[in-house]
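Hi support team,

I submitted a single chain yesterday and got back a structure, but I'm not sure I'm reading the token output correctly. Could someone confirm the output below corresponds to the sequence I sent? I've pasted both exactly as they appear in my results page.

Thanks,
R.
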Amino acid sequence: MTQPLLDLVRRHADAHADRLGVAQTPIPGLMAIRAVRPSELQVAVNKPLVAMLLQGRKRVTTGSASFEYGPGESLLVSADVPTVSQILQASPAAPYYSLVLELDPAVLRDLKVDAARPSPDDAPVRVEPTDADVADAALRLMRLLDRPAALPVLRDQLLREIHYWLLTGRHGGAIRSLGSTDSHAHCIARAVSMIRRDFTRAIRVEELAGVAGMSESSFHQHFRAVTTLSPLQFQKQLRLIEARRQMLAEGAGIASAAYAVGYESVPQFTREYCRLFGAPPGRDMRQARMSA
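Hi R., thanks for writing in. Yes, this is the structure output for that exact sequence:
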């Protein structure tokens, strides 16, 4: 089953990957990733997702936890948390390929499956062997890309099936709270959605707390518990990551990218960029383009 899925992902990614190696699909939240050489360190604030690695190797670090995984294994991210990742094994002869699906809390809520409750071991980032039922449903979903007439008819039920297998499988406890309307994770997710949508503007904490339905002190506590960041740090990382994407993928200048993501001071942008990525934007862009 892994080989047919790899073949389909390879064909789509080879044809559609952008300069960053991301090949979007017509299916919401589903994308193929391709790389032909080991990567530099990549900082991201991930949405909840499952990433099925099909060829190559990758390392992902969040906080003090680090995971290295390869073909036949999946990365599960069950909360909006910052990660630092690096593709370790990839070459023009044997590129890195993975299939990534962002999890949909609405689908999880609608399933109403009696999954295991979260336990202290349900970390927001984990690596596990890819579930055979998940891989089978993903294979059938990718096959729909060659049948555009069937895609709008069958897409949603296959996405629902993947969520079902994840919820009832080994990942169930970790993602259960995403679909629970009375969980702290669900409340914080509403605030996270606002920050992601409006990250270029200044958002008051009381506004975010109101969206989450919490007092400001409770909101701060639970936001950090779920994301490992304060709301301000979360927004700042989103701004810097988007600015880097604009400079690398679109060729935007430093000042243009800084202003586009909400900064009013280029020196402040440069200082904070250097702290997150380890180099000022000009040098970082030169290094990234040389490696590419």
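A quick pointer for reading it: The two ends are 32 Å apart (CA to CA). Let us know if anything else looks off.

Best,
Support desk
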